Every structure is written in structure tokens, then in C-alpha cells.
Amino acid sequence: MKATPTPRSVAIQKRWSTLDWASVFAAIIYPALGVLGLITAFTLGLALNGLTLHWWYPVLALFVGAVTLVICNFGIGVLHRVWQHKAGELKAPAQILTALNCVIAMQGRLKDWVNYHSQHHRLSDKAGDPHNPHESKMWAWMGWLIFRDPNDLQRPTAMWLKDLKTVQILDRHYSLITLLVHLVLPAVIYLTVWALGGSLLLTFILHAAAVTARAIQFHATILGVNVFGHLKTPRWADYLLAILTGGEAFHDHHHDEPVSALHLPRRGLMNRLLDYNGTILLVFEKLRWAQNLKIAPQFSVPARIAAS
Length: 308
Prior knowledge:
Layout: H1 8-11, H2 21-47, H3 56-84, E1 89-90, H4 92-104, H5 110-122, H6 137-146, H7 150-153, H8 165-172, H9 174-195, H10 200-227, H11 235-245, H12 269-274, H13 276-286, E2 290-291, H14 303-307
Antiparallel strand pairs: 1-2
């Protein structure tokens, strides 16, 4: 008789030795720095006469935040639908873009992402599911992410990813690439703005806005998919979380039809705006950066429409 797996929220001990500090930084410390940076920048801008705070700085910050959120979702959405569930194939430009977007979104090594999600689909909402909200909503949101079982991280790369050079390079050099994107590149931008006599205050506000938006997207995804996606929620909450996650939070169909490039029907402007992770895959297909996209039957163009 096969033994029932121990619930992960019980099996994994909560102690300093099992804390994954990279995840703690991505999920807690870095978001806190972004919010603190925004508060500090606007406070100093209002309080100090030597700093110029224009009315359009917050508007531009909101725009940069929105763009950052969408970029992060493009990374996670394509990773989830194509590299996880094999809903198509990506050519080199789309692979590189997706990998960089995943680095911006701080998703960690792709082999670990795919292995955890594969476990989730095998044991969804049962003992052994890495983030089962029926065990603990807090565990499904944050606990599984910051307390790790070393055995989970030692699992090899999934067979279908082993031949993808982009995945191999990203995972092999993930720490270095992350430092370049999140530390070196911002430092270069600050130095360039300073050398050209631009506004360092504005630069700092935009940087903090991008960091904060990444945090909003990060937590909307793990809350919207891992927790609320497996519970009964109001329709308005589904749509709000869908906007913040690029359509990933439309989760009611996903375990029945996991292999789908779209999470809403192909036709309809609102569908394509709400499910913009699917829309970017359709754009990739038009650019010939993606091919063999698979779409769940309920989201495909009906035959009578396609023939008209």
C-alpha cells in the first residue's frame, strides 16, 4: 500500500537553516526597499528646497511601474505556459526575452520553478502539494517559498528543458545575471544620469517604482494562483488578480486544460487585454518567434467563425 505523503507545511521545518535567503530577499527585503525608497524620495522632494519635485514625477513613476509589471508577467506567463506545460515552442529571440523577463521578475532558477510546479500539478490540493492552500493559506503564499527542503533544489532539470541552451545558460549563471540586471545596470543608469546633469531624484523614484511594481506582481502571482486560484473567490477579485498577473490568475480551468497558450478565448479585445500573457504568445507567433501553439478547445476560434 502506497504511503500518503506528509503535508509539506508540516514536513518542512521552519528554522533558520531551512530559510532560502534568496527567496527572502526577493519576496520581502527587496519589496520593502522599493516601498521605503518611494516614501523617502517623495518625502525629501517635498521637504527640501534643494530638490525639485515636479507634478509629473508620480505620473511617470506609475507608467514605469505598469511597464515593469507587464514585463515581469511576460516572463512568468511564457515560462508557465510554454516551458512548463509545453503549449508551444519558442525561437531564440523569444527564449532570450523570456529568460531576461524572468530575471527581472526574480523567479529563480528555471529548473526549480518547473520542478515545483510539476509537483503541484501531480498533487494539487493534496498532501505533498508544495503550496496547498487547504493546509495553510500563509504557507501557500509565502511559507513554501522561504522555507525550502534541500532535496527539492537538488532535483535535476526537467528532460524537456535540457536541450534549451537559453535555460542552461540562465540557470548556470543565474546569480551573476541577476546581479547585472538588478545592481550593475541601475548603477550604470545612475552614473549616466549624474554625468549628464539629469535628475537623480527622478531616477531614484523611477527605480523605486519599478522595484515596487515587481513586488506587487510577484505577490499577486503567488497569491492569485497558489491561494485564491484554488479557492472560491468573487468574480471582481479574479479579474483584478488577472490584470496584475497577465491572466495567470484565471485558474479555474487550468488543471483541466493545463496545455494552453491562452487562458481566455482567442477572440475579443477585452480577452486579449486581460490575458496579455497569452496575447504576447500570439504576437510571438506572428513574428515567427513561436510556433505550434496549443490552445484549449474552449479558447480556440470556433470552426464556424474561422470559416466565415
